[in-house]
Write a structure and sequence with these properties.
By secondary structure, the protein is mainly alpha-helical. Helix content is 50%, strand content 7%. The N terminus is likely disordered.
Length: 173
């Protein structure tokens, strides 16, 4: 996807687009010539990658100018392998930004009712974020499911097979 640097004591540092404001409500992603959005997003099509990327930035609303590069960096950090993962990462980033923005506001409120409302919203967003993390973890683990037998007891007169067992699917009578 482009040049990869190494930081001392850490893994790869992946390149990602930088966001800059180009109008009242418009932003541009500065993408270097050696970078492909499809690679960053783990997607097969340019239109799909650009669409998910654009909606991730748009979901930040008024914070897009200040935090747009965070969304880019999260794609680089979490390395989505397909469209589903890219969309989940976009949602997780927006949820995180909303949750932390509201958390800042909680402490500056003098009104008990407003503060309590913010706290409820932060709690809901926190639960949503944890559910999104769990969904991403489960989605990524789907191909790696294995069944491991920890202990087998064979009693007198019994038989056990040690090794791989497969079933042809037919019936025997």
């Amino acid at each position: 996807m482009g040049q990869v640097d190494k930081k001392q004591g850490q893994g790869e540092v992946r390149k990602h687009p930088k966001i800059r404001k180009t109008g009242d409500n418009s932003f541009t992603a500065d993408v270097s010539s050696d970078m492909r959005m499809e690679d960053l997003m783990g997607m097969k099509t340019t239109d799909g990658a650009n669409g998910v990327y654009s909606t991730a930035i748009g979901a930040l609303g008024g914070s897009a100018e200040r935090l747009g590069s965070l969304a880019s960096a999260m794609f680089a950090e979490l390395e989505p392998s397909d469209a589903v993962e890219a969309m989940l990462i976009a949602q997780m980033t927006a949820t995180h930004v909303a949750m932390t923005s509201l958390s800042e506001r909680v402490f500056s409120q003098s009104s008990y009712k407003v503060r309590e409302s913010y706290e409820r919203s932060v709690t809901r967003l926190s639960r949503t974020y944890l559910a999104q993390m769990d969904a991403l973890k489960k989605y990524r683990a789907k191909a790696q499911q294995t069944v491991r037998v920890e202990r087998v007891s064979v009693h007198e007169g019994g038989q056990a097979i040690v090794g791989d067992v497969s079933h042809a699917g037919g019936r025997s009578e």
